[in-house]
Amino acid sequence: MEIENFIRNFAEQFDEMITAETEFHELEDYSSLVALSIIAMIDEVYGVTIGANEMKSSVTVHDLFNRVVAKLNDEK
Question: H or E stretch including 45?
Fold first, then answer.
């Protein structure tokens, strides 16, 4: 899994430029509905379940990416 693809999938939820270091909770368009959309995208695209607490404790897109990668590695 590459972070560039993850960022592209993540960015589809926003009208703003997203990078790995974007603190997504600070984005103007971020809301609980967007968080649910991101959780659903991660489940659909990567087959990984991310909980609300994991979303809250992830500061940057890269933090969230690392959680997804760790869960994928745990499944192996």
Answer: helix 32-46
| Residue-level pLDDT at 1 | 77
Q: What is the mean pLDDT of the chain?
A: 94
Q: Are the CB atoms for 64 and 71 separated by under 8 Å? A: no
Measured CA to CA, the distance from residue 47 to residue 26 in angstroms comes to 26
Tell me the pLDDT band of 16, cut-offs 50, 70 and 90: confident
The residue whose two tokens read 């994928």 is 72
Q: Is the pTM of this model over 0.90?
A: no
